[in-house]
Amino acid sequence: MFQILDGKATATQIKDEIANEVRRITADGKRPPHLAAVLVGDDGASMTYVANKEKASHEVGFTSSVYRFPANIKEEDLIQTIEFLNKDEEIDGFIVQLPLPKQINEQHIIDAISPNKDVDGFTPVNIGRMVLDESAFIPATPMGICTLLERYNIETSGKHCVVVGRSNIVGTPVANLMSRKNAHANCTVTLCHSQTKNLSDITRQADILIVAIGKPEFITADMVKDDVVVIDVGIHRIPDASKKNGFHLIGDVKHSEVDNKCSWVTPVPGGVGPLTIVSLLQNTLKAYKNKFE
Ligand code: NDP
Questions:
Q1: Which of 32, 39, 61, 268 is such that its CA lies 20 to 30 A from the CA of 158?
Q2: For residue 192, what are the CA distances in angstroms to 27, 42, 142, 200?
């Protein structure tokens, strides 16, 4: 019988730990950490993600702000905002919610973010530091995946970890982290993508399978071996008139058939998503401490 890697419960536990630290900080008369977000356009999913990040910030005692812009904003105007946020002493860390509208080059925006405030861990400096195993802001979703495996004491050393998806924000960094030389990693990693041949032959070899491809219920039971640990990063909104918000969420894994073959599995929702937000909070606290402690 499979067991659930409960992201929601783990996130609650870590949020309590952060809230305790913030209480200690403010009891000393210092201001709490501040997380800012930049939101461009009115995409429903992006607005929900930013609202959730704000809510989580307040739950742990951070202050927060959201800088909203219309979808037709020019790249140079957005860069000006980034430069303002880089300098503002009251802001410890900030994120630019992706994706951005087509007229804006996302990499130009990311490159403009100060590495010291890059709590999403997307800038070249932080990615370079991560790869060199130096102190860095680790991208939130890969960091959350590693935290979940660590908190549940999942054995990783010497295991074959197969990552499906090579995006800069999930697949590539998590592949790097899982191959690290430390007790909570030490995996032999295979990184798969859309050009991988015989994908099922590779996924069936996985002891730990991390799926971040953005295709609903893509991974089916015939693609995994018994007792695999499955991390499903995918999030897809499926219209559902029976739900108050009009949709329900599914992942990149067909849980109705895959879960029974797993030893451990992350649900969707309630798996990786809550840990992503918590990692952002952990990075913001780290940015604050780097500055003040
Ligand atoms: P991207 O679209 O940036 O990357 C998808 C990757 O999957 C690419 O590397 C692509 O390969 C690969 N891929 C696509 N089709 C196939 C296929 N048929 N076989 C093998 N590989 C394939 O996605 P993201 O990494 O940004 O996100 C992935 C999913 O995770 C999405 O559903 C997203 O919503 C979700 N997500 C969830 C988060 C959370 O907090 N839970 C956070 C971030 C994302 P190639 O490089 O060759 O094109």
A1: 268
A2: 48, 33, 16, 10
Closest residue by CA, ligand 1 atom 15:
194
Domains belonging to the chain, first-starting first, are 29-115 (3.40.50.10860), 140-272 (3.40.50.720)
Which residue among 166, 213, 280, 283 has the greatest number of ligand 1 atoms within 8 angstroms of its CB, and so is best to mutate? Answer: 213
19 Cα: distance to centroid of ligand 1 (angstroms): 32
Q: How far is the CA of 220 from the centre of ligand 1 (A)?
A: 16
The tens digit of pLDDT for each residue in 166-180 reads: 999 999 999 999 999
Is 97 among the residues known to form the active site?
A: yes
Examine the residue annotation and report whether 120 is marked as an active-site residue of this protein. Answer: yes
What tokens were used for 22?
A: 């913030």
Confidence category of residue 184, pLDDT binned at 50, 70, 90: very high
pTM, to two decimals: 0.97
Quick: pLDDT tens for 90-147: 999 999 999 999 999 999 999 999 999 999 999 999 999 999 999 999 999 999 999 9
Residues 6+ away with beta carbon under 8 Å from 141:
169, 170, 174, 212, 233, 272, 275, 276, 279
Task: List the beta bridge partners of residue 38.
Answer: 67, 96
